[in-house]
Request: fold
Amino acid sequence: MAALLHGPLVLFIAQALLIVGVSRLVGLLAKRLRQPMVIAEITAGIALGPSLLGWLFPEFSAAVFPKSSLSTLSLMSQVGLLLFMFLVGLEFDPKLLRGRGHTSIAISHTSIVVPFGLGSLLALYLYPRVSDGTIPFSSFALFMGVAMSITAFPVLARILVERRLLRTKVGAITITCAAVDDVTAWCILAFVVSIVRFTGVADAIRTSLLAIGYIVAMLLLIRPLLARLADRARNREGLSQNLVAVTLMLVLLSSWATEIIGIHALFGAFILGAVIPKEQGFAGELAGKLEDVVVVLLLPLFFAYSGLRTQIGLLDSPGAWGLCALIILVACTGKFGGSVIAARLTGMPWREASALGILMNTRGLMELIVLNIGLDLGVISPMLFTMMVLMALVTTFMTTPLLEWIYPTSELAKQLDQPGEVEALHSAPSPFTLVMCVAYDRTGPGMMSLAGALIGKKAAHRLYALRLVPPADRASFVMTEQLGKAQSTALAPLLERASELGIEVRPLSFVSGQPAVDICQVAAAKGANLVMLGWHKPLVGQAVLRGTVHDVMESAPADVAVLIDRGLTQVRRVLVPYLGGPHDTAALRLAHRLATESGAEVTILHVVTADRRGKLGVARQIEELTEQGPDGRVLVRLEVVEHDEPARAALEHSAHGYDLVLVGIGSEWGLEHRLFGLQAERLISECPTSLLVVRDGTALTAEERQRQRARPDETGAWSPSS
Reply:
């Protein structure tokens, strides 16, 4: 091992490989648990420290993370923190503080004062038990108050985006309160740091005055300079390397200035990011340049360094674990309780007030930054540091499940209704409601052409175009939400086609980490009759009826159809292969709409297999069944064929000039969900024309479905009323 890790550079490379790899692996598990990435990074950091790796493999841990290398790891992690705090400052938009009224002011102040007060009171109990007495009690109490008051603004912003709460009232108030909390807490922390570093009152006053002068200079001198840089980036050369270099130099200068003043370098990086203008996209472009390297490489180094300082083994008694539980209880009581009470006093309902309290209790990375500052300054001991790290982990971990319980996604789906929509729904005569789920722009026009044929010229319909934006892995989550809105341009071709047809379509777009769940909940909230999915991937080597498509088909409270578009522009001739299963019946219902609403000619291909030849006469008795349009033109005709391979029969007939083939999902057509293998989708891959695979939303139970499959030709080939 020593031969492989010779030299500081080789050792650092090995450490970085291990840290980034473990963080990403734990991140996969966190994603499945719907937890923010910071949970994975904190957990990975603790796992790489003496609490797990050093306990299980002490020799390996000592070889990879020798004490002599920690100074290099600390320095690199501090560089990452400077850049990250700059990104956090970029996230902070002063516009968030405008127009929020007394509600946000009262809640934000209370969510600082209450946990700060409880933290200071807790310090009375903790000081004689976990402090060595070298730090004055006043400094210890002030630091505990700040540590209890922190809210993780970046993590909270991401949760709001992923939970679709950012545009709601509770989301707007929460993001405002979190922004105010972070700025206030960092200002208090800067004051506490100045007190700890300088023992005299005169030194503390001087530091405070210099800090105020620094902030004034940033607002009056540096902000106009940054505005000119942003204007230059927009009008001349774009965000060139020279502009990035100037900005990074300003970050370093600002950090240097605050370090000299005595309020910590991180404060300078945060303030510079906060004063950068947000209006012209300059901040977003800067974030795009820096985020990936900072978040993927440098921040995990900080988490690993924090993990190496976290020694869970120090909590070696029931009393120590009791103190840890007490810290967690006080932290939750102060932040959650204070926020909820303030929200209720301002008139917010219990559900919204509770959701706000849960969100404000999120601490995450910001708490770890504060704790590391406290440990470096000697304000807190390694044991208290470990307890506080566990508190940060627990309070962040509980946010997502508690929020799901208090504010379920089914409740959020109802808020997607537009003003007046509910009233219109009750007044309209049984509207046909269709939700079209658009992943890529190229799937939109074909879906809209089919939707136009399904509704015809009737006004009693409601069409929704749903665009789900995958959550980004970036740190600038509020900006990512703004960029996510721009991604709704995927709906543009669909909306353009709708305009050509003279059809009103209501677009919906939001970030979704669970697309199948969100599609089903939107369908339920809108009372959808049909959910249409567009297939957008190459069929070679790709199974259509898997993943999100399968999950939607299994759970949607409506009929589900998957359109495999091969240039669909109009629907004049339709083929419906039919064997009598429940999903075939759903395909018939849609075919009936196409015939009656837009005059499409529908051919029902009733396939009779060789093992049912004796019943062929029954099928022939309905062979002459037809339906005519107002002009006497035959709209629906029945064709009965005998074939041992129903899918092959459907493929042979689909080549006869049809615009669209409608087929019900089922094993009889070779269309069913399989965990392995591609054989099941021959009809999809070989069909020469556009294909719509339909699943019946009112499908029968397995036992009833089996009985129907045993007698498919007794159900009737055409049942528009079914």
